[in-house]
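Quick log. Single chain, no ligands specified.
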Amino acid sequence: MKKLISILCLTGCVLGIQAQENLTQNTIQGLLQGNQAQVIQLAEAFSEEQYDWRPMEGVNSVAEALLHVAGANYFIGSKMGFAPPEDVDIMGLTKITGKDNIITALKKSNAWVLDKVGEVESGELGNEVDFGFMKMNKLGGLLIIMEHNGEHKGQLIAYARTNGVVPPWSE
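-> predicted structure:
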């Protein structure tokens, strides 16, 4: 019995150490997943017709904003060393039309980037990455992914409210 308790304690310690090692990635994944879920809820709440709505000429429509998030997930992840799925044409995402197709593309992108956040090794968080628009470390890249999704969630909330769409989580 003492041996079993010792083994269980040792296993718990090892798992605790592993969880601590990935604390940053796990935390970012959790926050990102929450933002992603709300963006998907908003995407589903807009009508098909509202996907073409834009606040003014020259500003992204609902559809374009959603596809921008999907594309940015792949772009930022690729700059961090992760190849996008072979069946994804990052430059072709803007050609996707139709509410269901856009939501499908966004969900795929969300799942992919969420997985990649978890694949970043703790020892690599300080490694420099050239994102094209600036150089920073991988931790900064993970935070950009999270912040970018949150920024566009806010944009889509404003779009929704302007169009009489209530964010589903606030009903």
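The mean pLDDT is 91.
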